[in-house]
Amino acid sequence: MEYTSVVADPFSILTVVVAPAVLTNASSVLALGTNNRLARVADRTHALTARLANLESSAREHEVSASELAALQTRAQLLLRALRYFYLGLGLFAGSALISIAGSIVVYYGWPSAFRIAAGIGVACGASAVMALVCGCVMMIRETQLAVKGLAYDAKSRLG
């Protein structure tokens, strides 16, 4: 009886399906931005490695470049972890959307026990996806802090 209102109101079903879809899009945008940052770190690492190969190991510039290379490797690892979290969130949100659609179908056919199961699984997937996004964002914050420290260190070492 409580499920007939869901069938009568198509907007409630649409809301249940659209929310994970919007969050899937947000995950995709975060993954794209993180992937671009990872590519920039990789390019910087390649340029720095080439520069290190041409420097004498006793030069001060070599020491500065070696410490910068270590920081770049740490940044790359953080970005890779963030990407994994964002992709996990993306998959979980997509799964949550599909489960929401399946739950809507079982409501239409009047299977309340199947609806409860689908709703529970959908909520669990959605909550897990949100946690994955939060973890990915924390990795991005840490990486950004390292990038800013690297900029400050680079400016300080270049100026003297």
Describe the overall structure:
This protein is mainly α and 160 residues long. The chain has one domain (16-159). It has helices spanning 4-8, 10-53, 60-108, 112-159. Helix 2 (10-53) packs antiparallel against helix 3 (60-108) and helix 3 runs antiparallel to helix 4 (112-159). The longest helix is centred in the middle third of the chain and has 49 residues, at 60-108. It is rod-shaped, with a radius of gyration of 24 Å. It starts with a helix and ends with a helix. The model has no long low-confidence stretch (mean pLDDT 85).
List the helices and strands and how they pair.
Elements: H1 4-8, H2 10-53, H3 60-108, H4 112-159
Helix pairs in contact: 2-3, 3-4
Number of helices: 4
Distance from N terminus to C terminus (CA atoms, Å) equals 76 Å
The profile of the biggest β sheet is: none
Provide the number of structural domains.
1
> What percentage of the residues does DSSP assign to strands (E)?
under 5%
For the residues shown, what is the average pLDDT? Answer: 85
- Given helix and strand content, the structural type is mainly alpha
Order of helices and strands: HHHH
DSSP strand tally: 0
Q: Shape, please?
A: rod-shaped
Helix content: over 70%
- Rg over CA atoms, rounded to whole Å, is 24 Å
Counting copies of identical and different chains, the oligomeric state is single chain
Low confidence ranges: none
